[in-house]
Amino acid sequence: MRTFLISILLLSSGVLSSAHAAETSPWSISFHSEAVASHLDDTPARYILVPAGTDAAALSQAEQALANALRASGRASLVMNAQALGAVSQLDDASIARRAAVFPVDRVVVLRLFPDASGALTQAVVSLYDMKGESLGSFSAVEGTALPTGKEQEGKQMESTEASPVAPPAPPTPDSSAPPATPDEDPQEQYALRHIGFDEIVAVQAGTWPQVSQWTRPYEGKYKKPLSGDSFYRKVGREDLVQAYGQKMNTKLLLGVVGGGAAAGGLLVATTAPIPKAEDCDFFSPDFDACRQRNDQRHDERFAITLTGLGISAAGIGLLTVALLLDPHPVTASEARELADKYNKQLAAELGLSEDGSPTPPPKPSVIQAHLTPVVGPGVAGLQLVGSFW
């Protein structure tokens, strides 16, 4: 248990200036309680308000104004802030809804701001979701402009539709390479199907001197779909490593083709080169010495051709060996595990789970005890807050 002491000086000028700022807040004009209530369910519910998309100060001002309007609407029995969710500014709405599912609320309200033509964040979009992540509707507001009620907004949309009818959009073409969207699926099941793991394979070659070989093979999900070739790097989103793998594979293939051709061609030259027929030299002929020299020259030429062919074949075998030993992967096994660990942590965060894929436990509420003591001094009036929390 920790104890704290806070002194709050309530100067009259400060109180008046704060009250004046609250009354003239542009977002307080935009989010008035009656209009906000018209966009909510008739039955009071528990809401969690989540600002997302940016960390700008304007978002905090809009969040405070919308929270005040929700509390004053008569349609919210509880309005909870999003501090317990952690960092959510870069998450999409579906991920935010999944992360909020562990809290005692009925609705998730996601507030996002968008820039106008001048670049200022004056356009607000408010989206409502149930605890299964299904959309319950949305509404938009402009800073400093009163939010229209639900009926007014529906009337404007109907007038716009009647004035300029448009053909319904064509259904999107499904992407065969992307996994099917399963918003209602259990996050733990999604993690089990999409996480990356590794199999350790050990091979022992028996003999006079036994040899042990060991290598690592990555896979995806609980069914262990192999991530061979560059599919591992595509899975973790590293296109630079995909390109590096492709370049090393091209080099490996080129060395193999050149080495195999040289080995076969050199052996062919060494074994099939034409053998010139030796002359039958007459010992008693005056041309005997010249005849023998010609035979020796033919033998030397044949030996040189054979030796050249064997040399080419040996060089080709050397290139083949290099091609076989060349590892096309641009990272080591330990670096691959680091990439997979980073991917798994990001996947768990998107699904609202802890780093090991288990559900994130809800935060334990703090218990606070406090009492106020008036403080009066020359020119200053205030309150002293003394409390303890654990």
> Which fold name fills CATH's third level, the topology of the domain at 23-157?
Rossmann fold
Low-confidence stretches: 1-22, 174-184
What is the CATH homologous superfamily assignment of the domain at 23-157?
ABC-type transport auxiliary lipoprotein component
Query: What is the CATH class name of the domain at 23-157?
Result: Alpha Beta
Query: Beta-sheet strand percentage?
Result: 15-25%
End-to-end Cα distance: 5 Å
Q: Count every helix, treating DSSP H or I runs of 4 or more residues as helices.
A: 11
Q: Can you give keywords for this protein?
A:
alpha+beta; rod-shaped; Rossmann fold; single chain; disordered N terminus; 390 residues; 23% strand; 3-stranded antiparallel beta sheet
Q: What do these coordinates show?
A:
It is a single chain. The protein has 390 residues and is an alpha+beta fold. Among the domains are: 23-157, Rossmann fold, CATH 3.40.50.10610; 189-235, no CATH class; 239-327. The protein has eleven helices and eleven strands. The protein has helices at residues 12-23, 26-30, 33-37, 57-72, 93-100, 150-163, 187-194, 231-235, 239-272, 288-325, 333-350; strands spanning 2-9, 45-51, 76-80, 107-115, 121-129, 135-142, 196-205, 211-220, 225-226, 368-377, 380-389. A five-stranded mixed β-sheet has the order 3-2-4-5-6, sandwiched between helices. Strands 1-11-10 form a three-stranded antiparallel β-sheet, with no helix packed on it. The protein is rod-shaped. The model is unreliable at 1-22 and 174-184 (pLDDT under 50).
